Amino acid sequence: VRIVESGGGLVQPGGSLRLSCAASGFTFSTTGMTWFRQDPDEERELVAYITGDSGHINYADSVKGRFTISRDNAKNMVYLQMDSLKPEDTAVYYCKIAGSGYWGQGTQVTVSS
Hints:
Elements lengths: L1 E5 L2 E3 L5 E8 L8 E6 L6 E6 L6 E3 L7 E6 L4 E6 L8 E7 L9 E5 L2
Parallel strand pairs: 2-10
Antiparallel strand pairs: 1-3, 3-8, 4-5, 4-9, 5-6, 7-8, 9-10
């Protein structure tokens, strides 16, 4: 199993970023995927979840209406579109196979002026 995130960076408040997660080594199209985030002083927080067929999606209350999770099963990719970013969204963002211990290495998102 291999999970690799990309797309993090520095963005001003109110800006947007799109995170990508490339996954391989398992049957991607039937596997739920999640995005978590972790601030250094906090526990990891579940940000968004998507089922294999994209038929069911959940978001943390803190990101509802601002973040959008999606996936492309033909490319084995999961995405997190983040709009209207706030300083409190600053964290390392991780892609994870739902219900498993397989995590990516994370990508840093910093929201600051």
